Amino acid sequence: MTERDGGAKGRDPGEYVGRVRDETRSYIRDLLDENEKLRHLGASLEAERCRLREEKISLQEQILALREQLDRHDQLRLDLERQMLIVEESNRQFSDRYADVEEQNNVLANLYVASYRLHSTPAREQVLEALKEIIVNLVGSEEFALFERGEGDGELRLVGSCGLDPASLARIGLGSAAAVRAIEHSEVSIGASAGGGADDPLVCIPMRLEDRVTGLIVIVRLLPHKRGLEPLDFELFELLASHAAMALYASGLHGRVETGVEASS
Amino acid sequence: MGSIRKKKILLVDDSGTALMMEKMILSREPYELVTAADGEEAVEKALRERPDLILLDVVMPKMNGFEVCARLRQMDETRETPVIMVTTRGEAENVQRGFELGCTDYVTKPIDGLELVTKVRNCLAQEVGSKS
Fold first, then answer.
1. How far apart are the C-alpha atoms of A114 and A250, rounded to whole Å?
2. What's B76's DSSP letter?
3. Which residue in B91, B111, B117 is closest to A224 by CB distance?
4. Who contacts A169 (Cβ-Cβ below 8 Å, separation ≥6)?
5. Do residues B86 and A225 touch, judged by C-beta distance below 8 A?
6. Residue A168's pLDDT is what?
């Protein structure tokens, strides 16, 4: 018999089996505890997964809602941009209309002032002065001459001028195409070279009394800063053509009446 | 509550036609208009009426627009009053002279209604801005 055999033989087999059984039981208990922990962990992870899924769904819903909101806002923005374009267009149209109305007002104001000034006095000198003022202030010329037909010979005589020296007055183009056209056709006539000088005036305006030409307004040049004739100028020319002669005629009649009254008294 | 005082504008021109035209244009706006027919009357009315703005023609008898402008700038009562010169000559030196003498702006004859109204409004707005 060996020592080892003797040793094993020395142990109590029941005690050994009991110890192994206890250890096994302890191990199994630990395994069960661990299993229980894992089960809990699994359950909590499942709960967390569910929560996250719900959260994800909720977030997706929110994203969807936000996208819808964004779409609505985009639509609203587009609508507002469209409305703004309409308002801008409308604003532009109003602005253009305002400018047109202002321009029309300006034309009417000019015509009213010219007409009023021509007929506001029976004194011949004041009518001539008003005529000059109209050409300076409303037409915009400081180089012009006024001619009237003499009662006897019917020749055109100088009755007023502005900004023209005697040499220019002597050269003034009553024989120019514009002047001839104005007198013969009784219509406003524009010169060939847009104000070339006294012998080739810019514009000739006949002074009309019924179907007779009783005088001529010769505008040699416009003021330097005025670029050219505008529609308003032609309106003024037509007004001068028809009203200047009448104003001068009326002032002439008034003068004769005054002279007659003075002579008789 | 006191009513808002209308802005007063002194129109200076020896031409009745020009004065009438200016009045026609500006009377559509809420302004009180006062007129003077020559330079001396302009200075006298500027002191008496104390206008908010003066529309001043350049070519006038007795005292021309430049002289009037210079005189207005020498006096405490009218030193700051905006002056718009009305000139038939829009050349640079003419305009330059006006600005050197203290005018605020200028318009050329024949007067364009919209331009005049715009410049008058601007000058009066600047005046309000400088006082506030």
1. 16
2. T
3. B91
4. A145, A158, A161, A198
5. no
6. 78
Helix (H, G, I), strand (E, B) or coil at A233: helix
User: Is A143 in contact with A164 (CB distance < 8 Å)?
Assistant: yes
Mean pLDDT of A188-207: 81
The CA angle B50-B52-B57, to the nearest 5 degrees, is 90
Yes or no, beta carbons of B15 and A140 under 8 Å apart: no
- Could you give the angle at the alpha carbon of B43 between the alpha carbons of B39 and B46, nearest 5°? 130
Percentage of chain B lying above the pLDDT 90 cut: 74
The pLDDT tens digits for A65-79 are: 999 999 999 999 999
Q: Which residues of B touch A114 (CB under 8 A)?
A: 17
Give the model's pLDDT for residue B132. Answer: 52
The pLDDT, as a whole number, for residue A180 is 85
**How many angstroms from the chain centroid is the CA of residue B89?**
17
ipTM of this predicted complex?
A: 0.86
Hunting for tokens 């007795």 — which residue is that? B62
DSSP code per residue over A43-107: HHHHHHHHHHHHHHHHHHHHHHHHHHHHHHHHHHHHHHHHHHHHHHHHHHHHHHHHHHHHHHHHH
Chain B closest-CA separation from residue A184 CA (Å):
30
* CB neighbour class for A126 (10 Å; exposed up to 12, middle 13-18, buried from 19): middle
pTM of this prediction? 0.77
Cβ contacts from A onto B, under 8 A: 67
Return the number of other C-beta atoms located less than 10 Å from residue A3's C-beta. 8
Q: Is the pLDDT of residue A208 over 90?
A: yes
The residues pairing with A197 across neighbouring beta strands, listed in sequence order, are A200
